Amino acid sequence: MPLAVSVQAGEATGGEGGSFRLDALAEGAAPGEAKFRAEAAGGRVVFRGTISTRDAESIRSAAASVVDEASRLELEQVSVAIPPLAELDLEQFFIGLHLAGYRFDQYRQASKPEHPCPASVLVETAVDASGALARALAISSAVALARDLVNEPPSVMTPSRFAEIAGSVAASSGLQIRVWDEEECRRERLGGLLGVAAGSVQPPRVVKASYVPGGAKERVALVGKGITFDSGGLSLKQPGSMMTMKTDMSGAAAVLAALSALPALGLGVEVHGYMMLTENLPSGSAQKPGDVLITRSGKTIEVLNTDAEGRLVLADGLTLAVEEGCGTVVDIATLTGACVVALGDEVAGVMGNDEALVEALREAGTKAAEPCWPLPLPERYESDIKSEIADMKNIGKAGSAGAITAGLLLQRFVSGARWAHLDVAGPARAESNRGWIRQGGTGFGVMTFLSWLAGL
Ligand code: BES
Ligand code: ZN
Ligand code: ZN
């Protein structure tokens, strides 16, 4: 974490010297008004602005404007004085500071490619905010982990490298972990994952990370799509669409990242995360359009487009999760371009076989400032994935409800469990900096999961 945030309780006096003072913090501003102006006054920089206390988005974006302004002025240290404001959720303010201070610049040689973000922010509060800061640090470190995993180049972040990192994350955060190598994937008949992996020299991996607190009443599984690079396979993508396809493991990254925060947050839910990791590449050994895969469940899928690979690996992941006996299963995936067409690049699609679960995730997303919007799974579209020779095919009708037909296919692998699916193809990645969201992998889903799990 490049930016260190600390708190000091007591009289909110503001900083000295080249520091900021946030001395005009008022309720009632519209989200768009959560901006601050820095001005020189009496030998120091005074920071004036208003903040809406209504929602996480505006609190975080106010915090982000502190970081952005400090960065523009190249201030090393910033202090922010916050007057007593009962409704202000300081946890969100701290998350906004941390996430706006996120940088991924280890591949740059130039020492100052852009304005550096401040090294530290001291937040002076009228109340003791150390608990809120500790929670915010756990949450934003998890988001930063997800962003780091996504932002690494695809030839670095291979399935085996992801699994290695998962091992060290599990060791340092206190999770149980199990990794399936290619041989075990074969032994466990993970036909969906192996079909996608067939074209690559990089072997696939399944990572299972578990958080098992004493006395848990709920058992939940999270399943993440982890395509460390999606070229489309033999149904090759156009160069333009391939440029961002290192992002296609964002689901797996969000699952590992959310799990990594659970011990520190001390949540009372048992959570098992399954990360389905492989590349999707063309080669002489790649699966071909027309091939039929036998998934772990025994159900067969005719692969008519090798670029619709996410559902193939998730089919096996969902089966593993259901076999584990988790009554509630949620998957997260950069699954379809169709979802981006429907909802754009800031809103995720949420679907499932249980209305209350879908609604709970949508609410958690709203609290976490990660908007998720429900899409239906109408039975009438089941015929779109009917295959001539297998139990189903991996594509629907061209140009017709692509996010939904993908969801309908997934639904066939979760019978007996409450299940929901998050399609994050749009919001998993940002093309430019937007306050607390930085260009690149966003870590979308991590905070939705943490907010949802905290409410169980
Ligand atoms: N990884 C892509 C989906 C995607 C698209 C993610 C854009 C992020 C941004 C997925 O594997 C894919 O290629 N899906 C195809 C499915 C189609 C062939 C049925 C798509 O959406 O075009
Ligand atoms: Zn694809
Ligand atoms: Zn994909």
Structure in words:
By secondary structure, the chain is of the alpha/beta class. It has two domains: 4-125, Leucine Aminopeptidase, subunit E, domain 1 (3-Layer(aba) Sandwich); 137-454, Aminopeptidase (3-Layer(aba) Sandwich), CATH 3.40.630.10. 33% of the residues lie in helices and 22% in strands. The strands form five sheets. It has an eight-stranded mixed sheet with strand order 6-7-9-8-12-16-13-14, sandwiched between helices. β13, α11 (355-367) and β14 (372-374) form a beta-alpha-beta unit. α3 (130-151) runs antiparallel to α8, α4 (159-173) runs parallel beside α8 and α9 packs parallel to α12 (402-411). The longest helix has 22 residues, at 130-151. The radius of gyration is 23 Å and the shape is globular. The structure holds ligand BES and zinc ion (ZN) (2 copies).
